[in-house]
Amino acid sequence: MIVTAPINSQFELPAGQVLSVVADGVSSGIVFRLGDSAGGDQQGGTAISASSTTVFGPYTSPTRWDVVPLAGSLTVTQGLPTGQQLLDALSGIAADTSGNLTAKTITTTGNSGTQITFSNGQVLIALTTAITANSTTTTAQAGSLGITSHATGAGKLFMSDGSKWQFAVVA
């Protein structure tokens, strides 16, 4: 969808999807995360500069967004994250003083997906193959997270129990 100044447009982003906002060389704007329900508090804004692409998400629950072009037009798309979008989102990972979140390796595993292996052995993997909770087997260490772009499992977050993928539960 193309959003042209001065008209803003609001989007509801389903869980597990990303919102991509692209500005050409003469366009700019700001994207506000709205409250998760109508009337909820706005959670802040992100400036969109000319000649840029900004990706929001994925999130574990639905989110609401207000895209406000300040000049020109912004191209807005939403859908499942690509393996590259996940890598781009995680490229800024840095370890704290305790060494938490240190990425050990980032690998592309052919057509089946892209995987980030952390120093504790857990992985974050973006697959293109089907995942069915409590059925699809995995060798990923317990606690590892997975998503898929396949119709079976798309838009869901899975966690490895050490032998099978399960639906991830947020406490």
Task: Give structural notes.
The protein has 171 residues and is mainly beta. It has 2 domains: 2-79, Sandwich (Jelly Rolls), CATH 2.60.120; 83-167, no CATH class. Helix content is 5%, strand content 43%. It has one helix at 83-90; strands spanning 2-4, 9-13, 18-23, 28-34, 45-48, 52-56, 63-71, 73-79, 103-108, 113-118, 123-127, 145-148, 158-160, 165-167. The strands form 3 sheets. It has a 6-stranded mixed β-sheet with strand order 9-10-11-12-13-14, with helices on one face. Strands 1-8-3-6 form a 4-stranded antiparallel β-sheet, with no helix packed on it. A hairpin with a 4-residue loop joins strand 9 and strand 10 (113-118). The radius of gyration is 18 Å and the shape is elongated. Residues 101-105 have low confidence and may be disordered.
> What is the number of E strands?
14
Query: How many helices?
Result: 1
Structural class of the helices, strands and pairings? mainly beta
One letter per element, helices H and strands E, the order comes to EEEEEEEEHEEEEEE
User: What is the rounded distance between the termini?
Assistant: 35 Å
Summed up, the domain count is: 2
Q: Biggest sheet: strands, sense, closure?
A: 6 strands, mixed
- Overall average pLDDT: 81
Main sheet: which strands, in order across?
Answer: 9-10-11-12-13-14
Low-confidence stretches: 101-105
Chain-wise SSE layout:
Blueprint: E1 2-4, E2 9-13, E3 18-23, E4 28-34, E5 45-48, E6 52-56, E7 63-71, E8 73-79, H1 83-90, E9 103-108, E10 113-118, E11 123-127, E12 145-148, E13 158-160, E14 165-167
Parallel strand pairs: 11-12
Antiparallel strand pairs: 1-8, 2-7, 3-6, 3-8, 4-5, 4-7, 9-10, 10-11, 12-13, 13-14
